[in-house]
Amino acid sequence: MSNNADSRPSRLHLGYRDAVLTVIAAMLAANVFNGGTDTPGPSSAFAQRAVPEVYGVPNASEQRARMIRVLEDMSAKMQSLQQAIEKGGFKVEVTAMPKVELVQ
Asked: Which of 27, 31, 51, 73 has the most neighbouring CB atoms within 10 Å?
């Protein structure tokens, strides 16, 4: 029987929870009655999207387009390097050889 008594929430916890829920409900009701003029509505949200650069909002499609251009440039450079290697590679000339010490 002591297990059932321990698993039930105390009256203090129920009273606190009810008080907090009542305060939240009162705040929500006050917000509804005030008309919620402090929060932007859908029309103002759409108005901000009209000119994203003015508001500093990043344009995802433009970012992707720039990334694609950079990747295409890198691909072209890699292809030119690959063609140079396939034609015969690169000429490497050693002009000065550093002293090499073998560890035994």
From this structure: 31
- Residue 13 tokens, joined: 């916890």
Q: Which residues contact 48 (CB under 8 A, 6 or more apart)?
A: 55, 57
For 75, the domain range is 42-87
SS3 10: coil
pTM for the whole thing? 0.35
Contact 55, 48 (CB under 8 A): yes
Query: For residue 96, which amino acid is it?
Result: A
Q: 28-57 pLDDT, tens per residue?
A: 888 777 765 555 555 555 555 555 555 677
Please indicate, yes or no, if residue 51 is contained in any of the structural domains.
Answer: yes
